[in-house]
Predict the structure of UPF0126 membrane protein.
Amino acid sequence: MSTESALLPALDLTGTFAFGLNGALTAVRAARLDVVGVLALGMITALGGGVIRDVLIGAIPPATFQDWRYFVLAAGGALIAFALSRRLDRLGMPITVLDAVGLSVFSVIGASKALSFGLQIGPALALGVITGVGGGTIRDTLVRQLPSVLVSDLYAIPALVAAAITVGTVETGVYGLPAALGAAAVCFVIRMLGVYFGLQAPRPPRTGNDHDSPDS
Amino acid sequence: MSTESALLPALDLTGTFAFGLNGALTAVRAARLDVVGVLALGMITALGGGVIRDVLIGAIPPATFQDWRYFVLAAGGALIAFALSRRLDRLGMPITVLDAVGLSVFSVIGASKALSFGLQIGPALALGVITGVGGGTIRDTLVRQLPSVLVSDLYAIPALVAAAITVGTVETGVYGLPAALGAAAVCFVIRMLGVYFGLQAPRPPRTGNDHDSPDS
Amino acid sequence: MSTESALLPALDLTGTFAFGLNGALTAVRAARLDVVGVLALGMITALGGGVIRDVLIGAIPPATFQDWRYFVLAAGGALIAFALSRRLDRLGMPITVLDAVGLSVFSVIGASKALSFGLQIGPALALGVITGVGGGTIRDTLVRQLPSVLVSDLYAIPALVAAAITVGTVETGVYGLPAALGAAAVCFVIRMLGVYFGLQAPRPPRTGNDHDSPDS
């Protein structure tokens, strides 16, 4: 358990840093925000998923507000990304890779933290996915993009796989650094394969609905 | 009280199923999402209002995370809607009717649960409305529509009426299955009459402001 | 301390009223909503920041749901703004000024309330900013504008300054009505100077990224 105790924050901080970089690059690309806007979007992306998780499991105040390292890594990642963005010809690939890192790590941490707060297996899976996709969903909503969780090739599914591996290894008593890294790696690989090959889940057919006009 | 105890989850689950169907059909129509996106939007719509309610009244973890039936009905509704969507020529009317069902039921449940957690009458009314409109507001925001609560004919008002009937019957000791169903039915009828007749609350006049350009 | 105890609600209610007016005027201008939509957006803007703050510090149910004056001032402000909007040739300046008032007051209250709930200095600063910008961010998201906190000249920075003055005066034992009003005034002045002179934080250069196309 002591290994797990030390592991949780380290992985969590890694995901925080990745999402800080990611959110900031998104801010540069999607909306050409100034440095304060870049910092704000980076921090919201990095800290949003964990805050939602902690509110839902009753870990109040959220870990983010009790450990200054979260703020430093989120803000530091955002500022580094802001500085680097002028050197990058293309922001798309770094944004995608960093998002996949945050998604993978946060799904593992979210599921294991939910279990450690006494939630059952099903809710822990849900909390893993919510933690993984939460920050990015807020990020996309704020810059007025359709959220990745709704539209991206294999986004929620790898998060669910990572959460399932985490729950499985915790329940069988083999959870630890290797298991957590393995679960995150599986999520990362599935996500990146989905991006690379443009894999999509089935879509509804176009017939029939095309006559339908929005009534809102 | 034992009747009420059994009633609350049953009505809550009915609203969850209706909103799961609704959110999924919205996903098909508004954004042509794949099956994972449809499932995600259905579940967010179905579970969002109740989660917000439970966070605000301190019912942590939310009921959604303690009772697997919420997840099953939300996900099942979303998948059924995905499968059925190819058979529907028009999605507008099912979306509107299902949304009205969820709105009605959740407004009643939200108000009564708030009272059972010790909130006063005013806050219980507010919680009823928030529970009723919460999931749909998140749904609309994620697919970048103006939320129904802001723009639709008679949307928040029937929710408030249902919450008021609920609070009134709880306070006078006659709350139970008939009262809850009656309150929900009144909300549903007002909402559907509003849709059918295109009823609108007063709007601001157009004079004067047309010279005004956004400054943000 | 008794002064502070009486002061907190009074300032909080002032900010609530200002944001109620602001949100309602935004609803009139941005989306020509009907009176219910105007009321809803006014109340969400006025009450959103405080509700987020209270959820994050564990003050459940939020103060908003325990003190009817918040609802009355938020709703009253929204209705007054709706009535006045037909008399205003231009809504931009009142919207900006009222938003600055709410931002200033809520940043001070958020920081001091966080400290009174036992949070450390860093988290209290964050909570101040979150309380100040929270309602407006929800407001902008719902009417599909880029949030002020991401795009506006000097928005998060004055909020942070107000929170810092608040934390500094609380920690040195000189917090009270004059300190709170002073902190809010400094925030208000910085914000309005930023608007007046169009001050901007540094933006990323345009070179390099222009070749980049969104991949989402």
